[in-house]
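User: I'm putting together a teaching handout on how multi-component assemblies are represented. Below are the sequence lines for each component of a complex, exactly as they appear in our records. Could you produce the 3D structure of the whole assembly as structure tokens, so the students can see both representations side by side? Please keep the chain order the same as the input.
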Amino acid sequence: MHDKDCIFCKIIRGELPSKKVYEDEQVYAFHDINPVAPVHVLIVPKKHIPSVHHLTPEDEQLVGHMFLVAKQIANELGVAPDENMNKGYRLVFNVGKDAGQTVFHLHLHLIGGRTMSWPPG
Ligand code: 5GP
Ligand code: ZN
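Assistant: Of course. Below is the structure of the complete assembly, with chains in the same order as your input.
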């Protein structure tokens, strides 16, 4: 069930270009076109789900898988924390327009390679 006008569905299908980082049967990960840090990767399910708020119990395994893929990519791109939890990265789901969501196909932001502030803007 791909949404024909969805930009991320088009990227997953190869109809729009992207810089791929990782792919398996369930997810596709690629570099964000407008990175906010030295590492900014989007981990996207191949299934078209508009947001976290559209998840159902059948998606539970998929979401867990997205986090494990994020961890693997963080290791590969050199932003994983060391044994003292120095360095590190941020994982973000924006849910809805007020939270900053602009693409309505579920995506997990993996952001790292610099220090970050909290709270977010
Ligand atoms: P959101 O604001 O919905 O949480 O995040 C959407 C992200 O998708 C933004 O960081 C934006 O830069 C990225 N993005 C939007 N369109 C494209 C695209 O065509 N290619 C890539 N690689 N990233 C995109
Ligand atoms: Zn989509």
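A couple of points students might notice: The mean pLDDT is 97. The two ends are 34 Å apart (CA to CA).
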